[in-house]
Amino acid sequence: METIAVYWESRIKTYGFQRITDLSFIEFSYPLSEIKSLGEILSQDDLQTLRPKFLIAQESDHKITFIFCLPVKEGKDFHASLEKTPRPTPHRYIYPVSIIFFYGPHFGDRYGIADATFSTLLKADIRIIASGCSSASVFLVLDQDDIDKAEDVLSETFEVAK
Amino acid sequence: MEKLKVGGLKQSLELCQFDLRGPDSSEEIASGVSKLLVSQKINMEFITYYPNKNSYHQLTFCINQDRLSTASEILKKEGSLPMGWEIKSRRHVGIITIFPHQSAIKILGAIMVSWAAQSIPIYGIATSLSAISFLTDYQLIDKAIEVIQDLFQLPEDHAPIKPEIRYYQSTEVKKGKGD
What domains can you pick out in chain A, each with its CATH number? Predict the structure, then answer.
């Protein structure tokens, strides 16, 4: 059975923009061949209090690179934990960064959402530090100073459902 | 030992993955690539973008498996990407999404350990507000789900894990209310 539904938007609708500020940004890479040992490190009890607000991982050249955004205190603790790991894990730490995120009807099932997002930020000359889009949501990590401008320009491109 | 409770689990349809990597460029790659894909009405179901990874940038995205050749053609066309950018694609990948109720680190660590023990790869990870998504080999997706079901406790009335509906976005634009 096939069901056809018609859904038309003159502007892409979202359920609103949310932001999280004052976050630490941590990047580190690990050899893919040793991913099990990294999993064991992340399973340690003292890391279970961490509540990452954003997390992505990308694989390349037999390594996996992780990016975490954490509240500042958790970020400092995590940074310190990584430095104590048996295997050196070079990492990058930036503070402060902010996240703006949004989701909307059938984001993830249709084209055009990423284009509208990235083009809007590009036109406004806003640099993206990192981004992850999955499960019908768009997450953008930006310089803290850019967050107001980003919400303004994204609010012009997208319609916030009332 | 008591299993960690999770709110839900779902898997994607069969996808393919593109990894685009290259040096810093005046062109903004995420915007350029998403525009190229929109021109062919191709949806990106999963994206991770990190434009400052050491000295190079990486954009990883997944699209439906049946759009692989169309996407490859437009991306490989001369002038589509800035100089020095390379394209790698991987067929037959899938996404497993877990709704963790804020236990993302525990879930991440447990899956990394258990999948590594079963030689199930992780090609990418992204979180959303209430979920963590893992990109893996589609041919191993049933095995990957079995491992997760052994590790975590799902709600008894859990919805089907495999997608039952496939969405197609029409190429027709019907104008009317809302114009």
Answer: 13-19+97-160 (3.30.2130.10), 25-95 (3.30.70)
